[in-house]
Write a structure and sequence with these properties.
The protein has 225 residues and is an alpha+beta fold. Helix content is 35%, strand content 13%. The protein has one domain (12-180): NADH Oxidase, CATH 3.40.109.10. The chain has helices at residues 11-19, 35-46, 65-81, 87-95, 117-137, 153-159, 189-192, and strands at 57-62, 102-109, 141-145, 165-174. A four-stranded antiparallel beta sheet has the order 1-2-4-3. The structure holds flavin mononucleotide.
Length: 225
């Protein structure tokens, strides 16, 4: 059996984690990963902490003609949602799916388990992040996007999803752009980290979340399991 790593000093990996960032899908260039590279990346994506070994995810790979077909479904959905807009707008909406040479949809699908479903949701997020990291490790740029169409019923049905499936992300993959994007603001360590010494004086970060506006995606069952 190959070594498994529960800890392995690797300065390069730490340096990478401290500096990693996404590239914009629109800036990515061809080629995307080949089938062998994709298998490595998705194998890394699956290897995430997973309470109860439920594998609450599956992956759809879109390249070539499949990507064009999804673009057409998105354009159709845009047209239905915005019947007064010019047809050109619908085509442009679909074309956004074709910006990167390869797109992987990471789909959350809850499995039967003893533990709270919330924990499965977190595992699928970890799978998305592992996919980004593995893509970078193979030299590809990656961006995790949802966009409106992740939640659109027409698009979801066109992809073959049902009420139990949630798009955790469309991971866009391609050769990195020549010019990296400028760095974005990063979280402030000093407002997010407390060495706990009792329940007061905990630094909880900015409390700007708009609870009314956002909710968990509607599922065909109770999210609490
Ligand atoms: C679940 C999820 C969905 C996202 N959807 C979008 C999106 O639709 N559009 C967008 O511009 N960024 C989206 N982002 C943000 C980008 O993936 C990413 O955070 C941003 O490009 C900066 O990335 P970096 O911190 O890896 O450099 C999403 C992030 C997550 C985690």
């Amino acid at each position: 059996m190959k070594d498994v790593y529960t800890g392995k000093p690797c300065a390069e990996m730490l340096e990478y984690l401290l500096r990693r960032r996404s590239a914009k899908a629109v800036d990515m260039i061809a080629p995307g990963p080949d089938k062998g590279q994709m298998k490595q990346m998705l194998s890394a994506a699956m290897r995430v902490p997973d309470h109860g070994k439920t594998a609450p995810f599956y992956f759809l790979v879109f390249e070539g003609e499949a990507r064009d077909r999804v673009a057409a479904i998105i354009a159709e959905a845009y047209g239905r949602n915005n019947p007064d807009d010019k047809p050109k707008k619908a085509i442009e909406a679909g074309e956004k799916f074709m910006q990167a040479p390869t797109v992987v949809a990471v789909i959350y699908r809850a499995r039967k388990a003893k533990h709270p479903l919330w924990e499965q949701i977190m595992s699928v997020g970890a799978a998305c992040q592992n996919l980004l990291l593995a893509a970078n490790a193979l030299g590809f740029a990656a961006q995790w996007l949802s966009r409106w169409y992740a939640y659109d019923e027409h698009v979801r049905a066109g992809l073959g999803l049902d009420g139990r499936d949630v798009v955790a992300g469309f991971i866009h993959l391609g050769t990195p752009p020549k010019k990296p994007e400028a760095e974005r603001d990063r979280p402030d360590y000093d407002v997010l980290v407390t060495y706990w010494d009792g329940p007061s004086d905990i630094k909880k970060g900015d409390d700007a979340y708009d609870r009314e506006k956002f909710s968990l995606p509607e599922l065909g069952y109770n999210i609490q399991g």
